[in-house]
Structures are given as structure tokens and as C-alpha cells.
Amino acid sequence: MKIVEYEEKYKEGVKNILVELQEYIVCIDKWKLNILTPEYREKYFEKTIKNCTKIFLAIDRDNVIGFICGCLVKYDEYDYCYYACPKTGNIEELIVNKHYQTHGVGKILLTTMEDYFKSIGCKYCHIDVFESNEIGKNFYFKNNYTTRMRNLSKKL
Length: 156
Fold this sequence. Notes:
Blueprint: E1 2-5, H1 11-28, H2 40-51, E2 54-60, E3 63-72, H3 79-82, E4 88-96, H4 105-119, E5 124-127, H5 134-142
Parallel strand pairs: 4-5
Antiparallel strand pairs: 1-2, 2-3, 3-4
Helix pairs in contact: 1-2
């Protein structure tokens, strides 16, 4: 296995792994709000590639087995009125193919992105994780992430 920066030749593999994550999220969504539309594969890929500053892939035998993308948090003038605004990286997606989970691939991708953020002067790294994603939450807690804020919802 090797870690590489995103290249166009891995485009279809990235699309596949994004769909794999969405299929998982659909299955664990207790409210059944997450869906997988026919256009998800293309549109979500385009959005992800466009919005991310840095993308790393885990490759095994020329197949994408893991994917992480990150960007810098953008603050506006209002943020500076009430927040210290340290340079912060945000992990938008971290996905490991289900057959490679528990093999250290996610840890390597996470460390690679954190090292990148540190190299450009970031002081913090944020990630959102779906509340029902116990596997994801446990992974992040094990890697020294902590809950700082919670987004609470109520079904009416």
C-alpha cells in the first residue's frame, strides 16, 4: 500500500469509494434522511474535488482503498468579532474500503492529512462525523479527537 496525492487516473476509484461511504451512511441513518440518488456519484465527486485543498489516496495494487480530503477553514469578518480564528484544517471526508478497515489505512491517511495541515501552519484540525456512525466516532476518539460542539436535532 502507498499514499499518494490525488491524480486524475484515480477518478473512478474515488467515485467508487465515495459511493461506498454514502451507502454505509444510508444504512445507519436512523431517520432515513440520507439517500443515494443516481446523480450522487458524479455530482458529489465534482463537489468534493472542487472544494478540497488537499486530497490523499491510499492505493493498493493500483486500486483506491482509502481517501481523505481536507481544506482550510475560511473565516469571515464576523468570525473575528467573537472567535480567535486560529489557522485550522477541516477534514471533509475520510473513507476506507470496508475490506481494508482495521488494517491501519485510516490512521495512515489521518496522520498524513494532519502532517500536511501542520506543515502549512494549522493549529487545529476539525472533522464532522455522523452521529450514528459509531465506527467513525470510535476511530476519531482513539486518535485523540474530542467533541467540542454538538449539533442537536429534533424530529417534529
